[in-house]
Design brief:
With about 350 residues, the protein is α/β, with parallel strands linked by helices. It folds into two domains: about 220 residues, Periplasmic binding protein-like II (D-Maltodextrin-Binding Protein, domain 2); about 100 residues, Periplasmic binding protein-like II (D-Maltodextrin-Binding Protein, domain 2). It has 14 helices and twelve strands. The strands form three sheets. The protein has a five-stranded mixed β-sheet with strand order 4-3-5-12-6, sandwiched between helices. The chain has a five-stranded mixed β-sheet with strand order 9-8-10-7-11, covered by helices on one side. Strands 1-2 form a two-stranded antiparallel ribbon. α8 crosses α12 and α10 crosses α11. The longest helix is centred in the C-terminal third of the chain and has 20 residues. The protein starts with 8 loop residues before the first helix and ends in an 8-residue tail after the last helix. The relative contact order is 0.18. Keywords: Signal. InterPro entries: NMT1/THI5, SsuA/THI5. This is ABC transporter substrate-binding protein.
Length: about 350
């Protein structure tokens, strides 16, 4: 759940190259049948309609953002929809590149990356919000005494060199008459949050559902400043499930079937966090069991929160964040909001 914010110009270039070069390979794997059969209710084995092989690529290593996918697979929800779903980790180009090119039909992305991609005519589309409100923010061990954005001044921030990081930090600091130029920016490299704060940084941008919960389990209390608490424009969708325009045009029924099963997976996680956590642990046994369980209990009610159903997205959220990115020179141009996301494939 480490923050992978900020598509760089290199990634956009890769997306464009792959879209042009590989578009003809759109969804070959989605139509490849599996040799699977089911039993009839009478108990005799008969050959059923082959399942359709479908891949979804994650944004990062498996974590509780992804629980609904693993639940849907484990509980047979995908199979009920005629799908044989494989959950894979991203390649070098990332999930967005793989989805935009048609290498896979579905992936986990972010509102920010979809917005930036669409300014470059990369046809990513968000089809479901996994979490309704932004659970990310700036975190620091309590001994650094960072209680407000103004306290960032004179401190060392550990990040990844994305323009978005400094823009968000500067935006919430300005509201308190503080100056982002007074913050020392340090590239964390591959160091995790807990290693970095013991080495050379004071604070970093984290998702509380994972790193924050891990801090609780370590008994290393944090001061957490959620970015959404300082600006409605920063309460954007992260993460989201993405597809591409060609997939929407050529096989909308696949998207409906996939989201119907996925929604059932997340609903089980909402209703039964412990059961869902155990499914994720069994599916990815290298994960820390205590962390998964605690994280799941914290995150499950936030999947839907105040929305009428899991996955729902609002035009106002997309417009607000787009406006914010434009005002901070993070976009070259505006986008057509209605083409960047859709609720049309969510189950009623």
């Amino acid at each position: 759940m480490r923050n992978r914010k900020g598509i760089t110009s290199l990634l956009i270039s890769l997306l464009l190259i792959v879209v042009v070069g590989c578009g003809s390979n759109q969804n070959d794997q989605a139509s490849k049948p599996s040799n699977q059969s089911k039993s009839t209710t009478e108990g005799t084995s008969t050959e059923s309609k082959p399942l359709k092989d479908v891949k979804i690529v994650l944004d990062w290593t498996p974590n509780t953002n992804h629980t609904g996918l693993y639940v849907a697979k484990d509980q047979g929800y995908y199979e009920e929809e005629g799908l044989n779903v494989e959950i894979i980790q991203p390649g070098e180009g990332g999930a967005d590149t793989m989805v935009a090119s048609g290498t896979v039909p579905f992936g986990i992305g972010y509102q920010e990356s979809v917005t930036q991609a669409r300014t470059q005519d990369v046809p990513l589309v968000s089809i479901a919000a996994i979490i309704q409100h932004n659970t990310s923010g700036f975190a620091a061990p309590v001994d650094r005494n960072i209680k407000s954005p103004k306290d960032f001044e004179g401190k060392n921030y550990g990040g990844w060199g994305s323009p978005v990081e400094e823009a968000v930090m500067g935006s919430i600091m300005e509201a308190e008459d503080a100056n982002v130029s007074e913050v020392s920016m340090i590239n964390m490299g591959n160091a995790d949050f807990f290693t970095a704060v013991k080495r050379d940084i004071d604070f970093a941008w984290i998702f509380y559902a994972w790193t924050g919960i891990e801090a609780e389990l370590r008994n290393e209390p944090l001061d957490m400043l959620y970015v959404k608490d300082y600006s409605d424009e920063l309460d954007y969708y992260t993460p989201v499930i993405v597809t591409n325009e060609k997939q929407i045009q050529e096989d909308p029924e696949l998207i409906k079937s996939f989201l119907k099963a996925t929604a059932k997976g997340y609903q089980l996680a909402i209703n039964n966090p412990e059961e869902a956590a155990n499914i994720l642990i069994a599916s990815v046994p290298e994960l820390d069991k205590d962390l998964v369980l605690a994280s799941q209990k914290w995150l499950s009610p936030r999947y839907t929160d105040d929305a009428p159903r899991w996955g729902e997205q609002k035009a106002s959220v997309w417009q607000n964040y787009t406006n914010w990115m434009l005002s901070h020179n993070l976009l070259d141009k505006s986008i057509e909001i209605e083409k960047a996301y859709t609720n049309d494939f969510l189950p009623q």
